[in-house]
Amino acid sequence: QVQLVESGGGLVQAGDSLRLSCAASGRTFSMYAMGWFRQAPGKEREFVAAINWTGRTTLYVDSVKGRFTISRDNAKKTVYLQMTSLKPEDTAVYYCAAADSLYGSRRSNDYNYWGQGTQVTVSS
Fold first, then answer.
1. pLDDT the model gives residue 26
2. Taking all residues of the chain, what is their mean pLDDT, rounded to a whole number?
């Protein structure tokens, strides 16, 4: 069992940077793969990034490669999403998720626990 709480969202302008944080509870946090998803109005929830249990392997959707970086600090039970060169198309509610697996996935159904979401709005 793990509980997740996202923070760090806000209103920024195109080209700006933002770092999202996801604080977790649970003794076995280090054994979970972690992911970030986002959902824009009128769209399905979309995979953004994932990281395996060691933090050595990452996975990204093509649209954010080179701009977003996922990382984790198992000692602090926290996963991060560093977002740079933000675009209006990045506007969405961003969700942190934990999978009962050592390895990440692009599929939302593979994740067992979800945070409440944090709003990111990027203006032109």
1. 79
2. 95
**pLDDT at residue 1 tops 90:** no
**109 φ/ψ angles, rounded to the nearest 5 degrees:** -70, -15
Q: Would you list the DSSP string of 69-120?
A: EEEEETTTTEEEEEE-S--GGG-EEEEEEEESSSS--S-GGG--EE---EEE
Burial class of residue 48, CB neighbours in 10 A (0-12, 13-18, 19+) = buried
Cα dihedral 97, 103, 108, 110 sign:
negative
d(CA 88, CA 123) in angstroms, rounded, equals: 6
Q: What is the mean pLDDT of residues 74-98?
A: 97
Q: How far apart are the first and last CA of the chain?
A: 40
Banded pLDDT at 63 (limits 50, 70, 90): very high
